[in-house]
Amino acid sequence: MPDRVSLNQRVQFGVESTSGTNVPANKLLTCFNIVMGVKPEVKTYRGTGRRFPSVQEENTEYTDIAISGSLDYQGLSYLVSGPWGGATITTPTNGINARAWAWTPPVSGAITGKTFTVEQGDSVRAHKVNYGLTTGFSYKVTRHETSCAGTAIAQQLQDAITMTSSPTAVALSPVAGKHINLYVDTTSTGLGTTLYTRAFSIDYQYGNGFGPFWPLNRANLSFGGVADLAPACMVKLLLEADAQGMGNLVHLQAGDFLYPRVDALGPVIDNTQTVTLGTQSSGTFTLTYKGQTTTTIAYNAASGAVQTALQALSTIGAGNATVAGSAGGGGTGNGHHSDDWLRRCSHHTWQLCYHADAGVLRDAARYGYQADQYHAISGRGRYLRGRV
């Protein structure tokens, strides 16, 4: 039998509807490395007059999970949805594939973290856990490297399982150092105003979100649930000791609150543009995208003809653009304009929405936006975006 090699281990996640109840792990995540460790509590018994224990009993068992990898726009949502709970998910204005995920962890009250069935293995051997819950996460970014980590707990490890077949791969969407800006402001309403131009390192940590509890119930082979704990939070910045950087010393000495935002702006995912020819009675036009130009398009072409011409470009590709609108009418704006607006338009208008940048991020979706001081990830409909 071949050996089980670390390089070949796949990691698959499935979102549980009921915490601890198994579901197919139908998402393949390639942005994380995970290490599962069995955490038993063994009670030993030494008989009277004996030097050494002669009986032992395993009393509790759960799984400890260490997560590491590159900071990733899509992967980070799996880490955040544990300690901060479920997100509010909306579609940004003119968005097609983008989703805005907003987390608002409460100052007080319970947090219901999202739990996962997690499978790991290969064709040689595999194991899985239920009730996989992230209890903390962290990230560190410099201009040259971005990384993230997480801690999680789960119920008893189940060995020699068959992994869920044909999982959907979650596309890698790495956050690069060049994507990131740091803002620090003195009020939450001014968040995102003051750009720090000499920041060299950002280290964010959020830990100790949950802990397992163990009721007296022999039906529970592992922990029976989790309890909210007081989290440990920290942001550490490495700044140049110039006027801006040293200005924070005054705030420290005065006990001021500061509101940092880490804003990451990534590749285009939904790129909506409007083409208006004005009032025309004849002629043709062309469209150019990323250096490629369409064949000639009639001045009064239907939206389908414009869409076909765009998708023929190698920089867009089949299925990676939609066109709405009509000759002599108004652009529908993906349904965002009223019928009255459409009736009043008399010029030729098309609205073009590129589903991805160069056709490589069609499945890129689910980024969150959170104003105020909370950590979040965001996308404004056109770009992958991450914010703290």
Describe the overall structure.
- With about 400 residues, the protein is mostly beta strands.
- It folds into two domains: about 5-45 and about 60-180 and about 195-235, no CATH class; about 270-355, no CATH class.
- The chain has helices spanning about 75-80, 245-255, 305-310, 340-345, and strands at about 10-15, 25-30, 30-45, 55-70, 90, 100, 115-120, 125-140, 145-155, 160, 170, 180-185, 200-205, 210-215, 225-230, 230-240, 260-270, 270-280, 285, 290, 290-295, 295-300, 320-325, 350-355, 375, 385.
- The longest helix has 12 residues, at about 245-255.
- The protein is globular and about 105 Å long.
- Mean pLDDT is about 85; it is low at about 330-345 and about 355-385.
Gross morphology: globular
Q: How many distinct folded domains?
A: 2
Helix and strand run: EEEEHEEEEEEEEEEEEHEEEEEEHEHEEE
Derived from helix and strand composition plus strand pairing, the structural class reads: mainly beta
Beginning-to-end CA distance, first to last residue: 48 Å
Q: Give the low-pLDDT segments.
A: 329-347, 355-384
Kindly estimate the percentage of residues that lie in beta strands according to DSSP: 35-45%
Sheet with most strands = 11 strands, mixed
Strand tally = 26
- Helix count? 4
Please estimate the helix content.
under 10%
